[in-house]
Amino acid sequence: MIRSAALILGLTVAGCSSQAADRVAQRPAPEQAALPRVVSINPCVDAVLMQIAAPAQIAAISHYSQDPRATSIPLDQARRFAATTGTAEEVVALAPDIVIAGSHVAPSTISALHRMNIPLIQIGVPESIAESNAQVRDIAAAIRQPARGEALVARIDNAVRAASVSSATPPGALIWQGGGLVPGDGTLASELLRVTGFRNLSADYGLKQWDVLPLEHMVAKPPQVLLSVGAKDRSDRMLGHPVLAGLKRQIAVRRYPEKLLHCGGPTIIEAVGHLSDIRRSL
User: Fold this and answer.
1) Cα angle, residue 191 at apex, residues 146 and 236 outer, rounded to 5°
2) pLDDT band at 190 (very low <50, low <70, confident <90, very high)
3) Is the separation of the CB atoms in 208 and 182 below 8 Å?
4) Cα distance between residue 18 and residue 11, in whole Å
């Protein structure tokens, strides 16, 4: 039974490989080739491609970008493109020139791409604005859209400058996810707090780069601003905890959309705008 399933899977991948090989063979010579076609299997990469790629270059995006709970781009925009779950069969069948992914890719997908000589570019989670900008430039270079990449970097830098606040006494803030997970020093989220006029209190609690802050510790030493991450209903349940009832009268509690927490690139523009609005409201 197991051997039969393995044989079927092998034949499926082989069939996709054969189709992809035929498509690769039919591609024009490099000097005649159009802009490279790309498959993205990472929602943060999807957001960058929406800004810098020609629509015809995007063979497929990540299925996460078509999920209202996970997307970092407008749903109506995401639904204009094909989407994959990142499996070897799906990706190879599209015969892209390039695949761009996050840090974690299924070994079967890596192996299939290697066999088909399709380049795989992996983009990690950026830990700073500078690292995010470098990633934008890397993606732009890979899809041969360097000018559009530079234009996006300029928009990001302009948004950061416009939102920047310098203060001798910045309010202490925490970005707090469900379960108490907090981004600390050395994260992109922490840098965005700093440039928009906040002080990330993570280190004051002895937390690491990404760490869990128990509710009782936060109540014992509350921040001035608590940025609650998650969808509206999930945030309401978390913030509705009886222990926080009195605390919410002492501190400023604001929502911080989850889609702003995990990606760099153009998401930075929205994130610093959101943080700037909160800073002005205090």
Assistant:
1) 110
2) very high
3) no
4) 10
For residue 109, how many other CB atoms are within 10 A of its CB? 21
Nearest to 162 by CA among 195, 200, 128: 195
266-276 tens-digit pLDDT: 999 999 999 99
| DSSP per-residue string spanning 96-133 | -SEEEE-S---HHHHHHHHHTT--EEE----SSHHHHH
HSE toward the beta carbon, residue 187, CA cutoff 13 A? 23
Helix or strand (DSSP H, E) at 61: strand 58-62
Structure confidence by residue, pLDDT tens digits, 38-62: 999 999 999 999 999 999 999 999 9
Whole-model pTM?
0.83
Q: What angle do CA 218, 255, 164 make, to 5 degrees?
A: 95
Structure-token pair, residue 41: 């299997």
Residues in a beta bridge with 274: none
Distance CA 83, CA 72 (A): 14
Nearest in space to 265 (alpha carbons), one of 43, 41, 37: 43
Helix (H) or strand (E) holding 215: helix 215-220
Q: Are 109 and 51 in contact (CB under 8 A)?
A: no
Distance, CA of 68 to CA of 86 (rounded, Å): 18
Beta strands at 210-212 and 252-256: parallel, antiparallel or unpaired: unpaired
Q: What is the pLDDT of residue 249?
A: 77
Please give the Cα distance from 263 to 245 (Å, whole number): 31
**Banded pLDDT at 99 (limits 50, 70, 90):** very high
Cβ–Cβ < 8 Å for 132, 188: yes
